[in-house]
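User: I'm designing a mutation panel for INAR1 protein and want to avoid disrupting the core. Could you give me a predicted structure to guide residue selection? Please restate the sequence first so the numbering is unambiguous.

Assistant: Good idea. Sequence first, for numbering, then the predicted structure tokens:
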Amino acid sequence: SGQTNLRSPEDIQVYAVDKNFTLRWNYTGSTANVTFSAEYRFTDFQTKVTEWKELPGCQNVTDTECDFSSAITQYYNEHHLRVRAERRGEVSPWSSIFEMVPYFIAQISPPGIELQSTNGVIKVKVSPPEAGQVQKMWISDIHFKYNVVIWENSSNAEFRSQSIFPTDVIDDLAPDTTYCLKVQATIPLDLKEGLFSPIHCVKTTRKAVNDLLCATNVSVLAVNMKFHLHWSNRYKQHTSYNVQYLTGYLKKLPDDYSVKWSNVRGCENITDTQCDLSPVITATSGFYYIRVQAMSEHNRSCLSNEVKVDPLITNEIGPPGIKLDINDVSLHIQISPPGGSESEVWRDHYDLSYRILYWKNSSNNEEEIKVKEIKQTIGSVSDLTPSTLYCVKVQALSKVYNKSSPYSREECIETPGDKLLPLIIVATFVSALIAVLVVATLLVFALYQAYNKIKYVFFPSCQPPLNIEGFTGQLFRSPYLPTREEPIENCSIIETIITEEANQIDLKDYKHSKQSSRDSGNYSNDDDNSGNKTSEETQEKEMV
């Protein structure tokens, strides 16, 4: 209740550049005999939140700001700050708590720059922020990138912005003209932009007349990661060349890279105007700088302009190879990727796909060219016309790098003829043949059955013995044939005894013959027995 006359500080803010931290606030009450004190705490990965402590550099200050840089040693931990007003033992309530992570709120300080005007260009040397300091907010200088803004020192100046390395050259400038520039350091990975350096101005000189000894039109051509350097020679006398390269990351360092150029193996003291760079450019990541040193017979030399080589961007994709195969229903296309089996690593970076063009090769120029895109190296095309010549060519595409290869060599193949009609003819013939065989089989079977019936009726297989064939021939006639009516004989008994004896003798002979035939087994069957019994009964009746 005794502190009502003192108000709490408001609008707590922290301004940080590199590892320099300043706490600022506003105070709306009377500042007579009023001082301010601050406390802080931070989160620790082991003890979590620490206790409130007095903030060094911010105790009993009379201004509305204080420098507490010495208190910040953990740049990635969260810190809490608060401020209160004090007067003769009275204290105000604490202000609201200000939370911060030092690394995230800190700004990058301006870099240092040195300029040199020579031969129509401006050489720039940039010193990184916190250069020469032992303890740094920004851990590695290699993470810095630099932007320069340059303009003519005139009333209607146009500003030009570009990226530069710590040691670089700004060209394409007007001679005898004063240019001003400022440089800013950035850390793209953290989306941090620093403060611009103070403005520096310098006047350009006139560029020397082009030396005919220097190599011109220096360019790099690459297909399937095979890099070749080409240049032009304007010097009429004997000239030899050294091709030199520099790994790109060396330019990112603040050190002087001019002494770090190396000669390309196989391209030393050559007289040709080309060089194979493949032994040097072996990686797909990073980039390289190439230049040509020309040397005359009088030990005079001249360096060409530098050429930047970013392998995946500079390289061009070569045409793929194709092989065609065809069957009854589809055309199969086997694609050989550009560069062969050795290029598998860089092909993965390009994420290749393939565009297939195919068409009917006929005299009709209006035949439609059809397009099909695939990711695999094997494709197929269906709905083909029989007995037709189809032609195919393939192009490799990289949508990631917006690149496309030339088309492959055109390959053609003819589709087989229509096999449906021969199949119909064969099927019809086989069906007719089967039908004829079935009808013939049924006809033969019917004739065979009729033959058996006729044979059975007219030519029975069972015949009576010869000794009784005439006696009982009439008993073996077929039951299926009508019997003719036998004439009735009128007989008179002349001598009954003789006739009876004769009949008995004949009957005995018959029985004896029958017994002999049964014993021999030549004509034994049930039909004979039944027939014999019937004959006996008939004869006995006749004798009676």
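For picking mutation sites, this is relevant: The radius of gyration is 60 Å. The chain has seven helices and 33 strands.
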